[in-house]
## 1
Amino acid sequence: MRLEAVERGHRWKERLILGIVRRTMGEATDVQRLLFHRPEFLGRPLGTITHHAMRLDGDWSIAERELFAAYLSKQNRCDFCIVCHGEYASQAGDRALVERIIRDGVAGDPRIDASLEFLTAFASGPDAITAGQLERLRGAGVGNAAIRDLAQIAFAFSVINRVADALEFRVPEQALFAKSWPRMRDRGYRL
Amino acid sequence: MGNPVTWFEVNSPNSVAPVTDPYAEERRALVEAVTRGAGHLSPELRTAIVDRTRGQASDAVIPDALVGFVDRVAKNAPEITDADVDAVKAAGIDEETVFEAIVAAALGASLARLEAVDALLAGGG
């Protein structure tokens, strides 16, 4: 963590929450330090969007959404988020399949493959996003609402990937995310 | 910020039905918090950083010590080094301000992408 202010500049209430996290999980992660630092500035409003896209009703399964978060993070080269959401996707789905898709960028399922292409374009930049990618998604049976959900996942993690890399988040052991998964599955991303 | 809350999609030659973006209000709240919420950097400068990194013109002048840094956050965050952050701080910019600049740049780069998707969805593309 490059900024001392985000490492340990929390107000008393958030300091208390991070203390509880440390006692129950063994450690607090840098993303928790970030989101609980002045939570009204980024953590709470971004958490609302992330929770909406990752957990509320929609056409994508929880495993698919976590996979999208991990894959977008891979395109953005954000190590912390690849490990975290790769583990969450593995917990929610099939570990061997998740690892293969993240490694190769191919799922063999037209809905997922069209989504991976979209996420690659999203990471690349606004000019890389084309009508053809949306057509491919629709052709695979992905409706506009599901395209919008996919785009918000990409948006939310596009923000967090950049902040994580600019601040150089320390990447914990993957086992920590296995441990945090039941709570993340049930409680989600809202702060 | 000019995010459309509602637009119109032609479903048939004779009917025009409103299509609402269920995320629009949440996104507006995020942009509001990052650009206008309590902070160290002025709302004008935070807005200027968001606008610059989303590819929109802005009249506000971003300080020299920050402008290259926010561009790197937007375009190449994995390559940022301790020296980049140290250089910004050495120019007299405090850590809370650096934090806000990083978040504003990350938001701008991400909004640019989302707006490209929204334009395609709105255009029926």
## 2
Amino acid sequence: MFNKILIANRGEIAVRVIRACRELGIVSVAVYSDVDRASLHVRKADEAYHIGPAAAAESYLNFAKILDVAKRSGADAIHPGYGFLSENAKFAQACVDAGVKFIGPTAASMEMMGSKTRARQEMEKAGVPFVPGTSRGLESAEQAEQVAAKIGYPVMLKAAAGGGGKGMRLVHRAEELKSALEAAQSEAERAFADREVYIEKAIINPRHIEMQVLADEHGNTVYLGERECSIQRRHQKVLEESPSPIVDADMRRRMGEVAVRVAKAAGYSNAGTVEFLVDQDKNFYFLEMNTRLQVEHPVSELTTGLDLVHLQIRIAAGETLPFAQEDIRIRGHAIECRIYAEDPDNNYFPSPGKITLLLLPSGPGIRRDSGMYEGWTVPIDYDPLLAKLIGYGTDRTQAISRLTRALHEYFVGGIKTNISLFRRILTDADFRAGKLDTGYLDRLLKSKPPELRGGHPEVAAIAAGIFAILDPASAPAVNGNSFPRAADGTVGGTAGSSWKRAARVEGLV
Amino acid sequence: MVYDITIDGKGYRLELERAEAGWRCRLDGRDIQMDAVLARRDVLSVLIAGKAYEIKREHTATDMHLWVGSVRYLAELRDPRSLRGRKGTDADEKGPKKLLAPMPGKVVRVLIGEEQPVEVGQSILVVEAMKMQNEIKSPKKGTVRKIVAAEGANVNAGDVLAIVE
């Protein structure tokens, strides 16, 4: 087993891995950029080293700096988390060359799966089912137009190195294709330093269901059940659950067997996820393999009772899988909400800033994986994922009711979050009926929000006065002279900058 | 203590006084049986006729919000002794309109040049924050008078990005 693991990541996933290290008696090493000195992962780790400026390219994506910290700290393994370097085959190879164990698959497997076009070629050979499209990157807009005309619109453009919705565009008409291709290429370039984009027939409103696999380095591969990930916004998953409401034991076995075949064809080891598109008739098509731990891994942990990060570490240390396929039981139901720093009232724009108040849910069936704390300032430089709230129950109904209850306990003040969105999803009739597809969330957001019940404006009015008397400290003083008063005598809203005050007087905001 | 309070645009007059056993509270002339405890900074527990409420307070750059349970209210509190007439705060739809950055970020693209016509909802700039690109759209039909934030500029929430007239 390893003595010391460097976690080449930040945020909630770095905290998640640090916890696993502590549980296994392994020393954890954090790395941080200029804006992350006060981040939770730095506070929680046994050791922490500065690796450069906020820009990820100069810190969390910088091989040399991370490997240098590994060497200086004496780490014998690196856990990449998700995002950043987690699916970078060159980094995995650089770890091998530096004599540090990369906790994940080999560079060769990652290279094959990391390029969606190459993955497609290899998986077609292995007889894995696919959606029609190109299996290689587009060379020109003209070529894209020809392929699109052949397979028929709508088509989907996808970054070959992609993930997380970056570098993806849905194109309905030939006229939109050229500009969409340019946008996808430039987004892919910025996100992955790779412009390669390919094209596929778009299956409208499919489900997105993925299968967790786990493979040791001795040829044993198992699947751990599916995750329903159809609730997405801008191709970014928002809520995931396991099991899927539409997958029965037979479909699970068939999908799982394909997923294991995919992993074996890639010579895969460690934790991985095989993503499928599922059409209305429950046909499933291979989409891609994510060669890393997923954000949504906790739902599988709760339904299988396994600790995926422990297992990742044990597999990387050379252990054989301690169980076989027939030992794996799916029990109960788990749902995860991704808590993002974004503003539901303003088109889900990112909402970085200082967390002034944080009230946390707990109680039966609630798990919280978080990278935030009260008083912390969420930087603008990275992904807006703050935390994950996971509800578990003996069945889907209980998981939903526990999660709904917990979401009412959860409060993040000072910045905007999408917590209210989950309350809306969890009470929605289609969600409760399990009627989901990747267009679900857009439709929900376009529909009229339900009337909020139990409104108590008069209670708010009374509270406003009591706050002014009992707790004036964090607000501008009511009668005192310590804070400038806006021209209209308002004291509630003057905490902002002088610019804000000026704008307010001008009537601009 | 007397306050004029506005909750989501509706006005209330609140008279609050500490009494021997708690509070004397009158809301719009009605006596209300009420007890309140400050659980911690920005969190109140209020009991009104046996019903329990938890109220959270937060300040944004421009506003104060009070949450009763999971319902958010925009709250303004004024001491009437200092009351002056409020200035007209409704933005003039006819005049020039400023596009404000909704969040801190970086202007990665300017899509429309100065003095070009725009439609309502047409994208004028793209601001990137937290790895997401967000199109900033025109609030009105008119002409882009000025692009204040150039490509590559870092902007703060509330900064003027462009002016449409």
